[in-house]
Batch of 4 targets.
Target 1
Amino acid sequence: MMSWAGAAWGTFALAGGVGTGAMLRFMLPNVLFEPPQVYKAGKLEDYEYDKPDERFKQDKKTWIVKLSKDFDGKKKLVALDTTCTHLGCTPNVLFSEQKIKCPCHGSGFRFNGINFEGPTPRPLERYAVSVDPIDGQIVVDKTKKYQYEKGQWDAKESYIEL
């Protein structure tokens, strides 16, 4: 049979161990595992004109779009953020209707990212894109975003001119 003093020391040791464990866990960082923010997306010839490519929609949250005519009349390749600028939902590409449509509140975007219907206040954001000079692949850099309303879509890094 355990004595009163033994039980007290056991309780004290248990409380100290739990407290020390909690303190050590507090010292460890909370790590958030995200996919790489800069990635290669194939070659220019892998994409069709005026058809948002959805192969990176799920894991990279990006549409790659090869435009036969952007808002300024130029042929370009752009990388669009798949996040609706209204409330952050993920829109769907409606190929038959030639638009990107958000299922949450009905916002509509053209394939170049320009909003034209619904409550969304602004176009989709674009990511920086470039061509790797070594292997010729498209490089998407999600750490750099470009917004139309700030005049940033004119930045050379926001598109690849074709």
Target 2
Amino acid sequence: MQPKTIVLRYLFTYFVPDLLSSIPYHRDIFYLQRLTQRRRQIKFILRCTSLLKVTRCITLYAYSKHSVEAYDLNFTRYRVILSLIIFVAQFHFFTCLNIAYIGVATYNVFGNKQRNRTFTMMYSRMFFETTHVLLASKVGFSHQRIGYLGQKLVVGVCWIISRIIFFYVISQLITIISSVRASNIKYRQMVRQLHEYMRYRQLPENLQRRLILYYEFRFERSYFKESEILNYVSEQLRQEILLHGCRKLVENVEFFRNLPLPLIIRIVSALKPDVYMVNDVIIKVNTQPVCMYFIASGCVAIYTKGGQEVCHLEDGNFFGEIGLVTEQLRLASVVAVETSELYRLNEQDFIRAILPYPDLIDKIKKIAFERTEQTMFIEERSILQKKIFRTITERAQY
């Protein structure tokens, strides 16, 4: 956005409220001389204009939404916290409004004997009184006779607005609880069916624990029929949803860096999520390559034909591309070191996606050959070490 556009937008939106609400009304400005009726009116007006800061609540709401997106916070938790903040903030705002209007309008918030008390004490007492009024536990202020029509209107408007905020917060919380409970109920039903199935099959206890851990990791205690949801949206929305769901993968995996957006969307649309538990074999050596994998979270270990460990791959890495570009059997085995979430890209989708990009094919081949050389070097070194050990053992016997 151009600086001129930013300035003009600010001038026609928040400039006037920010300017008026920033005018100081500190007591030293008005108490240098005796307060006259005119100065009291000016001070009252300045106190009221300071309440224009409430217009910045819209900005606060926008910034909070940006923070949720930037830091990938839980949206349900964000809605709960935001609703509670709105509910509590109303008491602060109406307390300030009552201090500015009701207290100043009569110049006697707490009575003549308490006029010189600190603002903190005045705020605390008025907050207590305002809370009572807004919660409908009483009408009016104990230290204050609300006799003027304007004062009655202020109290009435505050009460009506607080009721609207109260019902809004309650409706938000009910909606959140209902949505969370609906997904949790479906998940519990699915887990109940899983327990019945395991009992029917008489599966061993170790396998039962692995299945339960798999379900907890895969569904995160919430179940949605994602395929049915995606079937009812347009192709454009489906691509945006998939790209948003894999945004961390796209950001972390070096494979996706500097790739054109259409290619990224094509690859992401073809990815299939897989979850592997500890010690699960993901790829077996000497098998036909049919796919490659991207690691979203977790850790896997690469082993040669002889069982020698080559390396560990973690979040943001990928593997399995060697067989797809060389058309050879798998040169290594891959085993999950911890519970890992992977994304699988099948061979046909892989070829269809990268075929129009020869530079990318050359880049993948280069990485594949480097990894092949590393694997072969470790395998040859392992074989050589075994021969040396066998020779030393044979000589020791003689």
Target 3
Amino acid sequence: MVDVKRLAADILGVGVSRVKISPEAVEKLDEVVTKDDVRALIDQGLIWAEQERGVSRGRWRVRHVKKREGRRRGHGSRKGRRTDEEEVWKNKVRAMRRFLNTLKRSGRLEPRVWRQLYEMVKGNYFRDLGHLKTYINEHKLTKEPVR
């Protein structure tokens, strides 16, 4: 039986532990001598390779549902550093002000319009730089659209 399993594993290209032999084939195993005999039993469906075991997604699904419900978000579950809200704000505002200043310096934005947009940036009117650009284009505040 051990030799037959080893030969079958070799033929099927799997490990010995994955080779399964049908109870009906047990009597025929005494007559098996060559690889061709084993191949014949495989063709008859009396010997086969079990499917490979995967990693279960069940635990992940449960955890995912919990996270969607707002659980598992405490301090102990967090990895990596978080950017301070103030730091995020500063970076966002600096990017938008830099963009407005380049438009003003290139003469694409009138000083009055520049001041108005500058104050809107300060007042947190725009979500991000993309929002600012969209606003400028939609309200046609420059001669040609900004990118």
Target 4
Amino acid sequence: MLKALGIDASNDAAIDESIREILDARHERLVPPTILHTTGEDSQVSVNTGILEIPVASITLESGAEYEGVIET
């Protein structure tokens, strides 16, 4: 099944390399590709930045409107 997903798990070294590639791909994204928020509940989003970078964020709602609430960092 993993091979069908493009993940090499043929030996221990391949498994370690596959895990490293997956983690690297996750950390290359600034934010996850999809974020689900339930109205009325608090949400947290991990933002991957460089160690000295200060993240700046805005939120565009499905309607196209900009979120006007507080974004805490």
